[in-house]
């Protein structure tokens, strides 16, 4: 079975490009050129050099000793939190800015939830001297203030999205509207494996460096490149897609994707898409999304801005449907406690998004011999105010 | 041959189509507005079924969609209202909206309900051509529904030809690549785009939409195509308390200035 996109832009039943005609020329230009561009030797060389010298890759694979002891398995953390700008998001923005440059685009737009993707986009725009406009939900601007400041400092314009739940979904709508109104000079750097084909595939390719490194790092450390479990949190699903990529065809590796259950999967305040969603179309692709009987998108909720999204990328919908990966969820409380635990046991403060993946360790049972890799997608600096308030620190 | 094809075959003067969102400003105003529009002289109607995330729309239609949803509008409610459509309205009617509500309703069921209500065509801006051809075309055809695609100044000629082949109503020309509600700005480049399309001699008639808000822009559009579609400018006047009473003057202002 193939877990990758086919020539029509589909992963099984999911994917495609459900976009109005106004977006077609830009998306089609990207679709017809992206593979050729990213396979050029010049592109690969520049991408790899920037990942090494600017982002700081390879990111370490760290055996978390005290956490391993607590759970009774060898738990490795893939340290995307140590990347420049503090999350996995920069792997994708480096790739896309190089694509945008080769397409001759002068203006970059992006949406952001936690602000990590916005920061990663503002960063590469500063690096390349391109104009940068970031759409961010009003609610998120408030709860992720340090990231707003970082974007502004690097010269980006941050525009609040004031419709709907004023979070990631609405920021994405605004970015798409901007692209419709600026059809010639603008590239839209989507921050996750969502959107019309070819975005889910392109973003997954740029993020696949996570699992590519993990395999050789595991081989070095354990003698085998195959772990028993691979865990990652899922908002739109980009860190998970990158973390899973080179394990998809490895039958030994069980893949676990952790969604945000908010105040409980059935509390009405949740972002657990696979548990609550149905098949449908959101932001240009056919996938699974939280919606009413009438096909209206339901406002999601999570304490973590980066997971506060009512859909998942089409590849995840496919992996879920064919059961290649298991989709589970962790509540706000579980994630916050897992974040505090990692801080206390390992001296690492994770992003609340990443803490959702860690929280699932509590629900797993181990015999003592398993190797587990958890994608630590980002660091928690941006979340300090939320942690402080939650724990009354 | 449905009402829409007949209109384009017979009407000599510029054609005016009006868009409004079903369920706005009041849940049950759909047919009252439709009837008032016909009486006032609109040539055909586009009734929008609201969606929570209308990415192709500007603030006015976004707001009307949200209000309509808050009022309780759904496709079920709309089709229930449309049972009396043909008792009260004789001009062509199209339904316009995003693909996800149609998918949830069921494509076959949607087409059957639309045909049963006496609807003549459908505009779903985010339904791609490929999927339309593979999965929807037969269903639309079977129920006698015209399907309308959009074209922008950036749409390549070969693609316009393909759209023309797949369409059997009219071609919806966007004055520029824009979300709804921007004012038409007729520059030299838009004029050359309109003439380019005219000179392609497509089999379908064309109408210009997005940004048509007054007599001047309506007339300009009618110079190049069969007429124009007014959306946001009309939805705006529905915000007033006596909106039904204002409809005749609005239509007159577009048609006559
Ligand atoms: C640290 C971190 N992890 C995860 C996510 C969720 O995104 P994705 O599911 O695309 O990895 C975000 C999004 O902002 C993030 O900042």
TrEMBL record, chain B:
GO terms for cellular component: cytosol. The keyword Lyase applies. Coiled coil: none annotated. GO terms for molecular function: tryptophan synthase activity. Belongs to the TrpA family. Tetramer of two alpha and two beta chains. This is Tryptophan synthase alpha chain.
């Amino acid at each position: 079975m193939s877990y990758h996109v086919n020539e029509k832009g589909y992963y099984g039943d999911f994917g495609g490009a459900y976009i109005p005609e106004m977006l077609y020329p830009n998306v089609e230009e990207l679709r017809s050129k992206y593979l050729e561009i990213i396979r050029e030797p010049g592109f690969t060389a520049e991408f790899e050099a920037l990942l090494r010298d600017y982002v700081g890759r390879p990111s370490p694979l760290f055996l978390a000793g005290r956490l391993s002891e607590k759970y009774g398995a060898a738990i490795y953390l893939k340290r995307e939190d140590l990347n420049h700008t503090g999350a996995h998001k920069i792997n994708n923005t480096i790739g896309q800015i190089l694509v945008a440059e080769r397409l001759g685009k002068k203006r970059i737009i992006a949406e952001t939830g936690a602000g990590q993707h916005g920061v990663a986009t503002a960063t590469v725009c500063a690096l390349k001297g391109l104009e940068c406009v970031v759409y961010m939900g009003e609610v998120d601007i408030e709860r992720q203030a340090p990231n707003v400041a970082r974007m502004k400092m690097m010269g980006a314009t941050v525009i609040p999205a004031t419709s709907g739940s004023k979070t990631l979904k609405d920021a994405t709508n605004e970015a798409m509207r901007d692209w419709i109104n600026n059809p010639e000079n603008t590239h839209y750097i989507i921050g996750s494996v969502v959107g019309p084909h070819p975005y889910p595939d392109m973003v997954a390719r740029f993020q696949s460096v996570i699992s590519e490194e993990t395999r050789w790092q595991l081989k070095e450390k354990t003698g085998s490149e195959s772990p028993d479990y691979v865990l990652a949190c899922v908002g739109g699903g980009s860190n998970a897609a990158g973390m899973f990529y080179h394990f998809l065809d490895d039958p030994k590796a069980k893949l676990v994707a952790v969604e945000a259950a908010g105040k409980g999967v059935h509390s009405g305040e949740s972002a657990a898409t696979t548990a609550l969603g149905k098949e449908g179309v959101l932001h240009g692709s056919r996938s699974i999304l939280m919606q009413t009987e009438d096909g209206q998108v339901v406002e999601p909720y999570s304490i973590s801005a980066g997971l506060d999204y009512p859909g998942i990328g089409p590849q995840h919908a496919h992996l879920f449907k064919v059961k290649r990966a298991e989709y589970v969820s962790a509540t706000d409380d579980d994630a916050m406690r897992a974040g505090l635990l990692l801080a206390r046991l390992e001296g690492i403060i994770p992003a609340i998004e990443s803490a959702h993946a860690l929280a699932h360790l509590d629900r797993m049972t181990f015999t003592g011999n398993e190797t587990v890799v958890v994608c630590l997608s980002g660091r928690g600096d941006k979340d300090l105010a939320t942690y402080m308030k939650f724990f009354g620190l | 041959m449905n009402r829409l094809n007949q209109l384009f075959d017979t009407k000599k003067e510029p054609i005016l189509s009006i868009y409004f969102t079903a369920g706005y400003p009041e849940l049950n105003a759909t047919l009252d507005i439709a009837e008032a529009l016909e009486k006032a002289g609109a040539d055909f109607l586009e009734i929008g079924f609201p969606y929570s995330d209308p990415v192709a729309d500007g603030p006015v239609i976004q707001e009307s969609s949200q209000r309509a949803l808050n009022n309780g509008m759904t496709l079920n409610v709309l089709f229930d209202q449309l049972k009396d459509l043909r008792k009260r309205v004789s001009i062509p009617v199209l339904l316009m909206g995003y693909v996800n509500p149609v998918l949830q309703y069921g494509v076959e069921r949607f087409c059957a309900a639309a045909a049963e209500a006496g609807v003549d065509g459908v505009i779903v801006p985010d339904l791609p051509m490929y999927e339309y051809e593979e999965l929807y075309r037969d269903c639309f055809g079977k129920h006698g529904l015209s399907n309308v695609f959009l074209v922008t100044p950036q749409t390549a000629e070969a693609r316009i030809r393909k759209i023309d082949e797949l369409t059997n109503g009219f071609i919806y020309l966007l004055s520029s690549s824009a979300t709804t509600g921007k004012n038409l700005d007729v520059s030299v480049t838009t004029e050359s785009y309109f003439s380019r399309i005219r000179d392609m001699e497509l089999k379908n008639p064309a109408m210009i939409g997005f940004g048509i808000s007054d007599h001047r822009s309506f007339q300009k559009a009618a110079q190049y195509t069969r007429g124009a579609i007014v959306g946001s400018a009309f939805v705006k006047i529905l915000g007033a308390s006596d909106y039904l009473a204002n409809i005749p003057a609005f239509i007159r202002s577009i048609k006559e200035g």
